[in-house]
Design goal:
With 495 residues, the protein is of the alpha+beta class. 52% of the residues lie in helices and 12% in strands.
Length: 495
């Protein structure tokens, strides 16, 4: 830790306040960095030891230009690790550093205690360094361009994972030897006959023929791969694709990192809302001086600013946590409250239960964004915070309100959060047409795939599978199959 004395003292003070509010976090290490160093760390996803790839350079260039032009500025960056690592920008003034530290402790508490982070590697900083070392060795051995191109292919497929597989065991941990038990064995067809006629009714050549037919049927029954549809496409490719050892290792690295980052995508609204709730509470109740109030109010309001046509996770998250706290303090939940249809009575409802803090800690522990919105978004909340469904109008060249109905607003939010708003793709058959071709199905839920992106995905899947790949989907309510054979893309309708 390279904090100057004043910041070290401030850090200890804010840590005491956070612990006084019952926040529970791993040891948190703060590092002071220049703005360009912070942009560099951010471009690597917060891990300065990550493997080299041109994509990170592009992200750094975008962040650097945004900072130079005054379009964006990174105030905080914190890593889910034990210990947690957080970065402070050297040029920030003291009130900004206080705000960031308080915000970071909120994140650290969320990382440690939220159920959806339980399976993540708490030593990922070290693991990322190991991954980088492995990929650099492959670059030296097989050529930088060859390895980087394959990394790019894998990165383009990194969302083809099963987000729920860490919590549901869908397959055995290790392949098991298949041993036919007596119950699994199917005897060959034998015609009924009296004992003395058996050799005539069931001659040896007939039994041999029937045995061969039975064995062939058993082989065909076991031939389907996978036996059940597989949502973790990356794991399936690791198990079945004809990859060199180094390629399998690279794909495994990308998959591991995808699962590490997945909970952050699943809890973006809650995580930012929780951190904002606590930085607001710590700053306004504990550590702000009179001279810092204006600066704090300016920067805090900027954090919660919501622009047209976009969702601010900080704003939505913190307001929902505050709403939950108020509702459980006043008893605005349960059968009696839900069945009350008098607006004034509901508005003034207050049973003085004082359960708000207990409830928000419970929510922080058990929920992800999808569950959070589904359980706690209410019509009253939508009206108060003016949540509507916006669509872009090509005719007027403006975003316009298309729906004010609570159900439509909630459905839109839930849909955008399901699987990060990305399509569910599953492997249906790895021996399509009995030619070793890969057949996938898009689980269509009302929104069509973008054909150009789907074709790019098929192209990269082909590079891993090395055989033609097919994707069944629905476009304009018509079921179609998109195919790629290594040279040409094809599209055909099916019934």
């Amino acid at each position: 830790m390279n904090l100057p004395q004043e910041l070290a003292k401030t850090k200890d003070e804010i840590k005491r306040y956070a612990e006084g509010y019952r926040l529970d976090f791993f040891e948190t290490i703060f590092e002071i960095v220049e703005f360009d160093e912070l942009n560099e760390v951010a471009s690597y996803g917060g891990f300065p030891t990550r493997y080299p790839h041109w994509r990170f350079g592009m992200e750094y260039d975008e962040l650097a230009k945004g900072y130079s032009y005054g379009l964006q500025k990174i105030y905080e960056l914190v890593i889910n690790n034990d210990p947690c690592y957080a970065y402070l920008m050297k040029c920030n003034n003291l009130v900004d550093q206080k705000l960031v530290m308080a915000h970071v402790y909120g994140h650290c508490d969320f990382f440690k205690n939220n159920l959806w982070f339980d399976h993540t590697n708490r030593k990922m900083m070290d693991e990322m360094a190991n991954h980088a070392t492995q990929i650099r060795r492959y670059c030296e051995k097989y050529g930088e361009e060859v390895v980087e191109d394959f990394v790019e292919v894998c990165l383009s497929l990194e969302n083809l994972i099963d987000l729920h597989s860490p919590y549901i065991q869908r397959r055995p941990d290790k392949p098991k030897m298949i041993v036919e038990s007596e119950s699994e064995f199917v005897a060959p067809l034998k015609l009924k006959s009296k004992d003395y006629m058996d050799s005539y009714i069931n001659p040896a050549h007939f039994l041999d023929e029937q045995r061969k037919i039975t064995e062939q049927k058993q082989k065909e029954k076991k031939r389907k791969i996978p036996e059940i549809p597989e949502r973790d496409v990356l794991q399936f490719l690791l198990d079945q694709a004809p990859l060199d050892r180094w390629q399998a290792d690279v794909l495994s690295i990308i998959r591991e990192e995808a699962y590490y980052f997945a909970p952050q995508g699943q809890t973006k609204i809650m995580n930012e809302g929780w951190a904002t709730y606590w930085h607001s509470k710590i700053m306004t109740e504990k550590c702000l001086t009179d001279a810092e109030v204006i600066d704090y109010a300016d920067h805090h309001s900027g954090t919660l600013l919501t622009g047209t046509g976009r969702l601010n996770p900080y704003k939505l998250g913190v307001e929902l946590f505050r709403d939950i706290e108020e509702r459980w303090n006043k008893g605005k939940f349960g059968k009696e409250y839900d069945e009350c249809d008098d607006w004034n009575t509901r508005k003034n409802w207050d049973k003085k239960l004082g359960l708000g803090q207990q409830k928000i800690f419970e929510v922080r522990k058990l929920y992800n964004d999808l569950m959070f919105i589904d359980a706690f978004l209410t019509p009253e909340f939508c009206r108060e915070h003016r949540l509507f469904v916006y669509n872009y109008n090509d005719r007027t060249d403006m975003y316009e309100i298309s729906e004010r109905d609570f159900k439509a607003v909630k459905e839109k939010l839930l849909f955008s959060l399901t699987n990060f708003g990305q399509p569910f793709i599953r492997v249906e058959d790895a021996n399509y047409f009995n030619r070793g071709e890969l057949y996938l199905i898009h689980e269509h839920d009302g929104v069509d795939l973008k054909i150009d992106e789907a074709k790019e995905t098929l192209t990269n899947l082909y590079k891993v599978w090395s055989r033609p790949v097919h994707l069944e989907t629905v476009i304009d309510e018509v079921k179609i199959i998109l195919s790629f054979n290594g040279q040409d893309h094809d599209e055909r309708e099916i019934e």
